Amino acid sequence: MGTTSVDAAESGLAVATAADRPRRRERARRRAAAPRGDGRIALLFLAPALLGFAVFYVYPAIRGAYYSTTDYNLLSPPRGVGMANYTALVHDALFWNALKVTGYYVVLNIVSQTVLALVLAALMFRLTRSVVVRAMLLVPWLVPNVTVGLLFLWLFDADLGLVNHLISAAGLSTHGWFSSTTWAMPTIALTNTWAYTGYTALLLYAGMLQIPGQVYEAAMLDGASELRMFFRLTLPLMRPVLALVLVVSVIGSFQMFDTVAITPTHGGPVNATRVIYYYIYELAFTHFRMGYASAAAMSLVLILGALTLLQMRLLRASRSDLA
Amino acid sequence: MRTRARWTAALIAAVLPLATTACSSGGSGSSNGPVTLTYALWDNNQQPAYQACADAFTAAHPDIHVKITQSAWNQYWQNLTTQMTSGNAPDVFTDHVAYYPQFVKNNQILDITSRVAADKVDLNQYQGGLADLWVKDGKRYGLPKDWDTVAIAYNTGMLKSAHVDPAGLANLTWNPTDGGTFEQLIAKLTVDQKGHNGLDPSFDKNHVKIHGIELIYDDGATGQSTWGNFAVANGFTFLDKNPFGTKYHYSDPALAQTVDWFASLAKKGYAAPYDKASTLGPDAVLNAGRAAMTMTGSWNINTYLGSSATQKFAFAPLPAGPRGRKTFINGLSDAIYTGTKHPDQAWQWVKFLASTSCQDIVASKGVVFPAIKTSSQKALATHQAAGRNVKVFVDEATTPGETFSYPITDHADQITQEVQTDLEGVWLGKSTAADALAKAQKAVDGFMSQP
Amino acid sequence: MARTTTARRWSIGRVLAWAFLGVALVVTIFPFYWMLRTALTPAHELATDNTGLWPAHPTLINFRRVTGATTVAQNQAAGGSGAQLNFLLYLRNSIIYSTLIAAAQTLFCAMAGYAFARLAFRGRDALFGVFVMALMVPPIFTLLPNFALVKSLGWLGSFAGMVAPSMLMTPFAVFFLRQFFLNIPREVEEAATIDGAGRWIQFWRVIIPMSRGPLFTIGLITTVWAWKDYLWPLLVGPNPGTRVLTVGLGIFLQQSPNTAPDWTGLMAGSVLTVIPVGLLMVFFGRRLVESMNFTGIK
What we know:
The complex is a heterotrimer. Chain A has helices at 2-20, 24-33, 39-67, 84-90, 93-126, 131-142, 145-155, 162-169, 184-209, 213-221, 226-237, 239-254, 258-262, 276-285, 290-317. Chain A is mostly helical. Chain A is globular, with a radius of gyration of 24 Å. By secondary structure, chain B is of the alpha/beta class. Chain B has two domains: 36-147 and 331-385, Periplasmic binding protein-like II (D-Maltodextrin-Binding Protein, domain 2); 150-329 and 396-449, Periplasmic binding protein-like II (D-Maltodextrin-Binding Protein, domain 2), CATH 3.40.190. Chain B is 42% helix and 15% strand. Chain B has 17 helices and 14 strands. At the A-C interface, helix 1, helix 2, helix 3, helix 5 and helix 6 of A face helix 1, helix 4, helix 5, helix 6 and helix 7 of C.
């Protein structure tokens, strides 16, 4: 087992040197500035990180790829089954449902969270820069997802929850938020929007801080309104930051797990909230199907990789920075 | 700099022992010296009774302590399987007929055949049929600890104010077409906000104050407390052969009719719909005076007749369906985890749990009916001495032809998830029972064809 | 003239803006109040007393029973299960778990980040590229095999198994610190080189003291992430000896009475998990908020 990981690390290095050539000129320039031949001391500096990387990233990656071609159940030794897991995955309606449901969640969560966070960031940037306000908005992010999930289960309880009380007091019709196929996913998305909007807003605010004040002074002299400045200046100027925050949040929300895990419907009703992460977890840890779960995880990695590449391209295309 | 390097070294040194202690802790207490067994159960109401058993057990075996952990039914199995994959499941745990075949298949529970024989445990002391449930391919995986049947719990005050004679509840009838006298009763006990009951033409089903019946919707693949009993009374059988049949009959129209009737109760305003049902559970709803009846297993006797009940409740037998009155009779056992470090001590504890020494203690607490016939009589006596009338459960269990046993097959975890998910679609009005159950049938056939 | 119109439009806009911000703050903070209000309600009264701003008969019994100050029988009489939240023990475990990860990871990633930013060695940029690629790998992919690895090492149920995968490095921390070190002017180190100090000494004497801010930031963020961690500690260390607060709360939920969640007890437990966060905000609030400006991704 140990040797595999070393081999993997070495092959990683081999790939590295091959890919190195085109950048040689740039490196030569840097080398001129730095003292030469830090190889040995560099190894010392890198040793812990390399060890961690090899053992807990590279090795498991190989291991995971291997498990995905076996019938491993965590209880008895794995037997190879070739591509059978992947073939089964293609025909697994629950897998496709999980992807669909996850996609729906990501859209709901990212749209609501990003729009709200942008508005809040703009308010923090242009209206008040009070640290207290920012600190208060950040509090939900500090609270464990499990606590957040419980709190929202209670607030949105069908029978006794505060939200239904308020709604019925307003004369509207109440819902079993977490137990309705229509509302369960939006409610979970809302839960995580509540938890992460403040954090996202602060990241976007940090991006806004990089915009020089003169830009706004000039615009104000021209009599531009705040709204106009937001759409004409702030938004275009912070597009790279916005794009990066989006990439990070999209990847993050693809991996939503905790909230679904503590919801009593466990991915229900009628699979409405059985997101891909929870489905993989269930396969591995409640149905003893580690091999199949690994195949599902591999597929998720491919999807996320493709998505990230796509987003990075868009990001590069939108590099209309201050410069 | 030196201090920092030393600090790093200290950090690493601090972490390493954590790893090594973890390794060594596994091997401690091998044969002699005090041993602590972990024991898991799901019913918090039974915890005090089994704690008393554990105390008595430790008094008899001073070197063996038992630590009880409880988790609610919804999470219990998920928990247990996760713990098994981690290799740290409880030494002994309460087992259910639906789940044990899966554990046997994955080699997670110990075969106790030879221990039972060596210690000459009398298998005839248990209520008829219970001991046979735990044998697969000639090997025994558990000893019976209790049994249960299902009945109706009702609020006596509400019956009185609706002018219903409680004696008549023993003769209720039911059919899936018009619900029989049982549905009449449910309707009569349902009251809207203006005080009209469900039989009144001016009844407003959208503003109901008291539901006639509170239903449990997430009732697994068998509907043990709800639709399963009625479906069997309507001529349905779960399996071609039980235990260890190979073909489920979910697409049987007798089942679909029953499920449709259950779903119709919410549409008529007689029961809270699935997506507005309280998360606090039927007992809280009944105690809050917001429903008049529910169906419940004998394990919940004290929930309704115990000191915590704020209303006065009583039990009535399930109504008789087209094929007569039918109720699940099921029992639990205790299983020994294969990964236990203390198999001998675990067996001592399991044997104790399955003996009169423990089952008489359980009987004296009056919570569930113990599996041993004499202990069961003692439990009935305990209830009667405390003024709790629980005879209906015993009558159902002992009347020939009124009980049927729980379906036992492989793949129960997948089947439960599938059937429950499909039925959720029916409760939510998204699909008809026939469609949902046809889908369930197809999926379940698929599971059963897996190795 | 133009001025006055702008001013008026401004003031209406300002009122709306403040109103929006005010609503956002209320929506952010009020759920915490509701958590506390529920925790102070007797369990048996919850079915009837769940609307007012303050419970009719406020009680501390829920806090007492979740922290184990009551017996099982008393718990059940108060409407809970036999479950308790061994708060102090789990708090200790959470602190051990998050500080071990944060301290070790910050240190090791600073070393690696420095090597990538400042040292010249064969294959540096390519290796860094591989690290950055790992940023994209979702944790679920390594989670399953890592679990199998930790299991085969016999580290399940130990802090070692819990912290091992994230203690030595995360690609994000390496990336983040490298970016920071790149911006330190080289002259600073060159002065030290003239003094004859080697790389190792330069790193500790020059670079580390200069980078207190970002190091603290990454440490703080790592602490928060580890503090919130649920799935990994749930899988690897669910036993009481290593059970962290989030897992403790999850297990407390599972130990609800068989038929229904113990909402008042759960909310009392939730309040307890929020208290440390509140303290963190009180002591490090400004630091934490301003640290976000760093992560504001350069």
